[in-house]
Fold each of these.
Amino acid sequence: MLRILANTPYRRLFSAQVVALVGTGLLTVALGLLAYDIAGASAGAVLGTALAIKMVAYVGLAPIAQALAVRLPRRAVMVSLDLIRAAIALALPFVEAIWQIYLLIFLLQAASAAFTPTFQATIPDLLPEEEDYTRALSLSRLAYDLESLLSPLLAAALLTVVSFHVLFVGTVIGFLASALLVLGTSLPRPRPAPPRGVWQRTTRGLRIYLATPRLRALMAINLAVAAAGAMVIVNTVVIVKAGFGLGQSQVALALGAFGGGSMLAALALPRLLDRIPDRPAMLAGAALLAAGAALGSLVDGLTTLCALWAVLGFGYSLAQTPSGRLLRRSAAEEDRPAVFAAQFALSHACWLLAYPLAGWLVPAIGLRTTFLAMAALAAFGTLLATRLWPPRDPDDLVHRHPELRPDHPHLAAHRADGLHHHRYVIDDLHRSWPRHA
């Protein structure tokens, strides 16, 4: 897997991702402490609102930001957004009111909503071979999992010698280091897209996404991932502290089990996807999430919880990590940023639904029934994905263009006057999926 780091531009971008993730992890810890410093016992409500603001920014702004930035050089866009994020993080220690936290978090996540899809759409251009790109996806998943494990430990170590306000400085350093690494990276120029209006550019990724069967299935898998993942993220502390009467270290241990399972899947995926297609792997991951969430209603101690969380982590990574491959094969090169932005927005819309459900249902119907309800939601997503994603899903499809003149360049390029075949993606000439496909 690590051999792809021999690609210098990718290695620098991956390093930028890692240092930015460390900075974001420190920000998460510092933000919780800042909220407690300002709001006291209401800190949980403040953080919950900040998390909702983050999701709203991701869902609403990713396609718009991508549409506005599509004609700008990628490197300049990413460096500028890193500098904006660093400036906002630098301002956070000086806030004195809760509304200021909300405003700065919205601005920070708005910048991330523009940065992340641009970054993700750049990697397939750097690694055109599918085998290399698969390994890059797994490496990225490992980076996220390691960050979730190591950033809290780093923050805890720093807090023994400095105030939590210093953690924001670590976040600023992370974003500045990311900007420097991106600035020093030579990125390929994306293929220029035909001129379009802002509204067309904003909605293009969503239109391509929703017109492609495998991507509609990916949306359903996103729902299964969010339903089970939200139970882990939202309710681990409730289960461990209120349910088992244990402490903070046991909370960290349970979350570490989830991250460990995810890392194990990320390590196994490159070889697995060399042998089987994306569809059975991702559907198996979604089914594992639904079954694991249902088994959560039977958990009776820390050992069984950690074992179940490891299984859910494995399913989480198995269902989610190959999604980049689907996006890459489902869009023309010039449309990739728009499609990645659509996935970013739609997947976070699922989290925007799942987070409050996982939090609000527990006091209303109890923890065990909440597990079953979220398992049902994950099972619905899995079954819907199975239905939407055809078992036979080739890239090359036979189709016709009755609307085109016989001398149209597209038909001439494929030496066809009727039925012809090629790699099929939704674009200006192919606005809907062939029915026989």
Amino acid sequence: MIEFENVSFSYEKDRPVLRDVSFRIETGEAVGLIGANGAGKSTVMKLLLGLLSGEGRIAVDGVEVRKENLREIRRKLGFVLQNSDNQMFMPTVCEDMMFGPLNYMVSREQAEKKVDEVLAQLGLTELKYRHNHRISGGEKRMAAIATILAMEPEAVLMDEPSSALDPCNRRLVINVIRSLPQTKLITSHDLDMIWDTCSRVILLSGGRVAADGPAREILRDRELLEKHRMELPLRFQS
């Protein structure tokens, strides 16, 4: 589904952010991308979406991430931003959810039908006509996820989906993420959330893949995490 082959990237000459990064994510996998600040997690997401261009090969479902393919690539990928305010820009949740499908020439009737289906799936039917500036942070995060699902992506990318949420809303978001059938790539410093939602973890450090394997192994490895300036999930700290 998602392939990185020997990918390198620098914002400044001779200061690489990513160095020969390679990994493959299969269809249906839920993968956590973790690492300390500056490890390159956000850069991976931007390269995957074609917002940046580096060296090496990146492909989504066999289609290489190149300028001429970006429309097709972005139909396959749904990106949930860390700050929902940057994603929800229409007056109501319904209008936000319909915006993407309508731009892809889906009829208004079909778009609204998809809105109803997604909101029902997530248990958010009551948000349909709510104004974005009048819903809570947790509701807005859920609505942002719903907006992406209305586009029917094959894979969902999420940047810090649990940040700034209270415990109740954090649990709601985790439950929604776990229920999604799509391929998932999630970046987060919340390793307890990664434990709850991902079966596999890729650890970036110094712009390289420092570890790639089962979440249940990597997230219990105190020595490995501390070596790369991270700590065990809170549930394992004593």
Amino acid sequence: MQPRNMSMSGVVDLAAVKAASEAKSKAEQARAEAARQGGAPAITPSALVIDVDEATFERDVLTRSSEVPVVIDFWAEWCEPCKQLGPLLERLVVEYNGRLLLAKIDVDANQMLMQQFGIQGIPAVFAVVAGQALPLFQGAAPEAQIRETLDQLVLVAEERFGLTGIAVDPNAQAPAAEAQVPVGPYDALLEAAVVALDSGDLAGAAQAYRNVLCDDPGNPEAKLGLAQAELLQRVQSLDPQQVRKEAAEKPADVAAQIAAADLDLVGGHVEDAFGRLVETVRRTFGDDREAARVRLLELFEVIGGDDPRVMAARTALARVLF
């Protein structure tokens, strides 16, 4: 999927401007009727623009694309054209009043997604409609041209996929912002966690790491330590022979595959653990797929995001999710 010129020709016949207008009108009526019948609650206009990362991509982009087209803005802090395009996209998406959702992805922090979409330059803009990715354009563009492309995207979503968007209430209250907690030194807590881990007190170690993460959710040492402690907790009561027997006999049993992957990782078979869960994600759906995907992301935390085996598995995971 390489970014191309700002065109979606071939996806649907876009010549009928009247059809687009009628489709939009029908979508508005459908959203209003859904709201009257007690459908999904309306969201605030600000909730139409969300930050997305690799961990939330499936939930916030792939899943939500079944109800509303999701425009993806690939950007970076150092990219000057991104700083021009981003606010324009945010304003336009709000104007579309629920017919579009904007997902902003920082390419520096989400290399896997950048590779999966084949991004060669930023800003790059894609859309995901009913789980299908569509390249829109790369680089900054005039507002009129962007509006035309978004009109086309809405038409595709409504005529071909039956997506009527989500209800927006400008008077709805946004969730209250969480109070900022000052981040302080955690050497004593982290040292206590390591001591507990070394002594076999896995529950104590996990709790010590959680205490750190309560105040500092992004603390890398605590995240890694907690992932390791929880993994060891999960496998300590397992019968390895029985787990592997069940995994071999029941390839469709997600719980069996997850347990076997945990044992693989503890035993040092990293690629086997990752490969088992990627394959489980590939052949499952719904809650089973989500359970396998989440466990795979947890195992990534145990190894560390910079490990080549993790990066390779992230790419493989992205391939099976599309």
Amino acid sequence: MSEHSVPPAPGSDVLVRVEHLKKYFPIRKGAVISRLVGNVKAVDDVSFEIRRGETLGVVGESGCGKSTTGRAVLQLHKPTAGRVFLEDTELTALSPPEIRRLRPRMQMIFQDSYDSLNPRHSVRKIIAEPLVVQGVMPADKIRDRVVELLELVGLQASHMVRFPHEFSGGQRQRINIARALALNPDFVVCDEPISALDVSIQAQVVNLFEDLQKQLGLTYMFIAHDLSMVQHISHRVAVMYLGNLVELTRRDKLFHDPLHPYTQSLMSAVPIPEPRLERKRKRIPLQGEVPSPANPPSGCVFHTRCPLAQDICEEEPPPYREVLPDHWVACHLADGRGGSKIAVEEIR
């Protein structure tokens, strides 16, 4: 994608700012002499901002770069290019020891609630580990802090002596959340934290995230497949496709009037709980497979599956521009008046 301006977050109190972020994974061949033969462009020129206290939902198909973006923002993956700021501090310019000193302010909750917990450690040791590693609390105060965190996420003090295998998936994810909150972070990346849970438990965990945000003033980057959950929890939503950000706007605008053809296709697949409306709605299925990020298409990365693709889409990357107030789209055909949406409906 070509160079573009960073879309402003609503409000002026920006906590996280990402500028032209790229993360490429090298492809090497040769058993004896390894040589570079290409790159997997997992994240390719992504820019966005997250203001303090908001939730930015990030959606897209598997392999589109959502999780890699979250890890690169937290410097768990060193970016190939671009800059990431936490307030006025440029994370991408810091050394590993300097990043470690900032870890209390930014945490991550992983998708697999079991693999992310050490099965040989008790809940007390798991939750206390960040406090011990960072040395932010006297040893005689740690137990009380663990109890406080367990109660904060809806568990009991007696759970601290048990081990991860003794808990359900939802309870294990609550333990993960408690550990992430141990150091009082400002920013939390939630990497599909509910996708491995039963549907009946997902709503409980999402409600917990919302309650904690109100209580502690947390800022979330919420990565998910489930669009209905993203719609419920997010203030703004970013849509990714093949390592690129194709649309970003406020939640209500995105779900009621998506402008990018890819976003329109995603939204058409979200079930409507009213049978009469569901029967009348038009689906916008996508044809073909997602291209390989090791060899992305020229021009617009979506043009090989787009029902509206024109010659310019194959030749030139679309500019990422603000077509409506606080509504950013990377599409040659989006004009801010629903033009691309009308065209999609006409070809059905």
